[in-house]
Amino acid sequence: MPLAQGILHFCMKCSNKEEQSVYSFMELKKAAKQQIEGKEVKAAVLGNCATQFFSMAICGFAKKKGLNLNLYDADYNQIEAQLINPASEVCEFGPEYVILWLATDKLYEEFLDLDAAQRSGFADLVMERLSHYWDLISANIGARILQPNFTEIDDKALGQYSCKVETSFIYQIRKLNYLLGEAMRTRREVYPVDLLSVQVQMGQNQFYDAALYYNAKMTVTLDALPFVAKAVVDVLLAMAGRIKKCVVLDLDNTLWGGVIGDDGMGGIEIGELGRGHAFSDFQRWLKQLKECGVILTVCSKNNEDTAKEPFLHHEEMILRLSDISVFVANWEDKATNIRRIQETLNIGMDSMVFLDDNPFERNLVRQMIPEIEVPELPEDPALYLGFLQQCNYFDTVSYVGESADRTRQYQAEFERKKLELTYESIDEYLKSLEMAGEAKPFEPVRYARIAQLTQRSNQFNLRTIRYTEDEIARIAEDEKYLTLYYTLRDKFGDHGLVAVVILEKLSEEELFVDTWLMSCRVLKRGMEEFIVNRMVETARKGGFTTLKAEYLPTPKNKMVQDIYKTMGFTETQENKYSLKVQDYVEKSVFIKEEG
User: Fold this and answer.
1) 82 Cβ contact partners less than 8 Å away, ≥ 6 residues apart
2) What is the largest CA-CA distance in the chain?
């Protein structure tokens, strides 16, 4: 089996409940017909090639991953007709997502029909067409767009010299992928699907079958379709808030070669020693994850001082203690220690990934904590990095630089918890934190972070409605809504933006709490009361007399099922609440308001 296929084979294994290899197309075809529970997600596929099997694979893979996907597959090469007419089948279907696939093979045929002068501008012409489609989708459907990039065809008209000739197809398709990336940066409603990487990983001979294309207009083999489907479904899952937020790391033979307690500082493999280069590159990738907001933690069977020594003193270590949010090293079982880490971080177990070279430890954690993701790492450390990159656990649909401060925030939280133990009452502890917060209407500079919170927050989220950055911008500018974002800081550091409230105007007297979510990092500090105080004050200043609210249960947000009752709302129907603004008594908090 080729290396790339072997890595893909590994990463398609279900790590918790089903130990099986990559799904076949026939398995996905069968799964696509199954009925599953959960909120229905509607998507449509539009393409300039045959997309029936492509759509079937996406639907089947989504259902295998627990996403209740209702997929509409438009007729062959009907993109313009479906998008330009607001009464078309796709527009009437009303998808939340449109997957827009322009196959490179069809573009190549168009390219060959042009003269030399026209070929030099081919990439620009295709990009104009794509932008036109995006505009139509936004205007007539209002859906989010999943946009695959373009696989490569090297026509070899001039051999390898074609790479520098503007009128060659390989030059134009590479230029088109560059233009596509640049265009998506300015279009908040468009999300990339890296189809090209699937082609590169599998190899062109496994990805493409000329006979299949010429006979059936299929641009991807049946064997490649499950991997293409995974790329699409990864994005859909991220949009649904199923995001991995944390890596739990073993140390010996995972972050470095050897055993620090036995081999000592000079004997572990890192940097140029033995297999050290593979571990160094693995650490570089982990550091990149940390810089993108993923939480790095350590769970090691070791003496703590010994385990920390390489982080503090080994000159070739890439990761340092400052990169680790929670460091647990002792001789207890790893399942118990992972639970301790999870409690400190206050995130869901299903948002954590545990990496350990030892099969015994992996199996123990799988048995004790079924929710956590435990990938079956290859035996050879040289394969760790490629394997995990292909697993793509950390797909996201937004990024803001503020996430890079998360490590410091969790380190500060560890210090807060130690301080809490020194006080006899919770009130004394909260006073000692010297907290200050603010509540402001949404601002453009905050849109990305607000959208990210709606996508990532699952536990303290009353209705669990996901919004993209462009939707947050639209809401902020719509007079139909009143918006608030909240920040919090204390003497240990700045939590940043921690909560979001969106109030919809139902009438001149009534407001509806469309969204109320909060980071679990700031639970039980009075922030909940601070939020409702400002929420009611905003309603009062706007002349509204009543706040309406709703709790939509999910498997993850049970912790807030009674929050409205606790805050003084009256339950009018099951999970529906009302509050008379004039009757609300502001709650006491130890948070000084800023601004």
Assistant:
1) 46, 74, 75, 88, 89, 90, 91
2) 82
* CA-based nearest residue to 54, from 209, 227, 212, 192: 227
pTM over 0.90: no
Q: CA angle 353-359-364, nearest 5°?
A: 70
Residue 166 has which token pair?
């503007």
pLDDT along the chain (595 residues), means of 10: 44 41 86 91 94 95 94 93 94 95 94 92 96 95 95 86 92 96 92 94 91 89 94 91 91 94 90 90 95 92 94 94 93 94 89 95 94 95 93 77 58 63 76 92 93 88 92 94 95 88 97 95 89 96 96 91 96 96 94 85
Rounded CA-CA distance 336/339 in Å is 5
User: Among positive and negative, which fits the CA dihedral 93, 467, 176, 2?
Assistant: negative
DSSP three-state, residue 259: coil
- Beta strands (DSSP E) in 194-263 are 246-249
- Contact by Cβ (8 Å): 553, 574: no
Residue partners of 432: CB distance under 8 A and separation at least 6: 419, 423, 491
Cα radius of gyration (the chain): 26
